[in-house]
């Protein structure tokens, strides 16, 4: 699938938002986002600069993200849930934001709960570098 540039930007922006919502940024989260950033074709300088100032970036608003295609939205939400859980700190702000993004993309909020449960039941999947994005590119 050819992902439009706006959706690529929103995908990465959404991951940055997800990582920022718990006010912590661990190495696993950085690596997770870096892998997706590379796959989406973003320059390493852009990633490095954004990640360096992520937690203090007041211009990165946490508005829900709308994608042009439901497949992209599903992929993003799966990856974002995985990212939110990779540091073993899943808070209400992350869950609420993910559910708002799901609803904006006409996806039932239960989709988020189901993915959270799936990763809780198989925590080994959190370290897996098999991202949902890879299945649609």
Category by helix and strand content = mainly alpha
Broad shape: globular
Helix percent reads: 55-70%
- Secondary-structure element order, N to C: HHHHHH
Keywords:
137 residues
Describe what this molecule looks like in 3D.
With 137 residues, this protein is mainly alpha-helical. It has six helices and no strands. Helix 1 (5-20) packs antiparallel against helix 2. The radius of gyration is 14 Å and the shape is globular.
Brief write-up:
It is globular, with a radius of gyration of 14 Å. The chain is built from six helices and no strands. By secondary structure, the protein is mainly α.
Topology:
Elements: H1 5-20, H2 27-40, H3 44-52, H4 70-85, H5 92-104, H6 110-121
Helix pairs in contact: 1-2, 1-4, 4-5, 4-6, 5-6
């Amino acid at each position: 699938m050819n992902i439009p540039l706006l959706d690529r930007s929103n995908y990465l922006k959404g991951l940055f938002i997800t990582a920022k919502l718990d006010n912590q940024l661990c190495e696993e989260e950085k690596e997770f986002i870096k892998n997706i950033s590379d796959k989406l074709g973003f320059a390493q300088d852009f990633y490095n600069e954004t990640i360096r100032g992520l937690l203090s970036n007041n211009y990165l608003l946490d508005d829900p993200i709308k994608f042009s295609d439901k497949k992209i939205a599903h992929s993003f939400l799966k990856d974002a849930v995985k990212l939110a859980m990779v540091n073993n700190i899943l808070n209400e702000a992350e869950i609420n934001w993910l559910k708002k993004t799901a609803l904006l993309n006409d996806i039932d909020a239960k989709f988020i709960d189901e993915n959270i449960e799936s990763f809780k039941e198989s925590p080994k999947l959190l370290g897996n570098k098999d991202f949902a994005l890879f299945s649609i590119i």
